[in-house]
Amino acid sequence: MHWTLQKELLCHISPFFKAACEGKFHEAVHNQIVLPEEDVDSFELFVQWLYTGHFVKSQDTWTERAWVLGDKLGISAFKDQAMTQLLDEYASSPFFPFNKNVVEYVYTHTTAASKLRILTVDAVVYGFKPMQTSANEYSELSAQGGDFVTDFMGVIQSAFEQDYQSPLEKRGKYLENPLLQ
Fold first, then answer.
1. Which of 29, 96, 112, 160 has its C-alpha lying 20 to 30 A from 19's C-alpha?
2. Are 151 and 117 within 8 A, CB to CB?
């Protein structure tokens, strides 16, 4: 997919694009940035957001991927748009949205302090309440160990120590700028 976007706008909104477009980098010299590893659907959402301030996604697009793209590009406002969309999807879905594939994707593409990781583990812990999800869904992840299991166990421990709230009751915790919620 090929996009022609305004360089000044990209550089203004994103430290990633600013760094790529300035100096003697190949991208700056050739006036072209290639992002082969980025999901096309997520980049389309970014372009929508870039020119309108919001995006409308299709059913098949993973909102988590848009958040990850925003994180890579260093754009907090885009990440917050994706997070708000994700929380709205979570609130309106009769199905538990953080399945094994989503958890694996989030933990593969984010850092330990990522707000998307925090939401993911909070939602999984909250989803373990009876009838919301099955522990079998996560048995493979548990067997693999790693950061998800460590985070999960930490949140489970604190959940037993207090009345654990739904992630929807603490939306601001997951936003870069919680004042804009």
1. 112
2. yes
Break the chain into its structural domains and give their ranges. 1-92, 94-170
Amino acid at 151: D
- What pTM did the predictor assign? 0.78
Looking at residue 1, its amino acid is: M
Give the C-alpha separation, 140 to 137, whole Å. Answer: 8
For the chain, the residue count is 181
Phi, psi of 175 (to 5 degrees): -100, 150
pLDDT value, residue 129:
54
Closest listed residue to residue 63, CA positions, set 92, 35, 34, 36: 92
Which token pair is 155? 């949140």
Single-letter amino acid code for the residue at 3: W
Q: Which CA distances in Å does 46 have to 13, 62, 89, 181?
A: 11, 13, 18, 19
Kindly report, residue by residue over 129-139, the tens digit of the pLDDT. Answer: 543 445 566 66
Q: Tell me yes or no: is domain 1-92 CATH 3.30.710.10.
A: yes
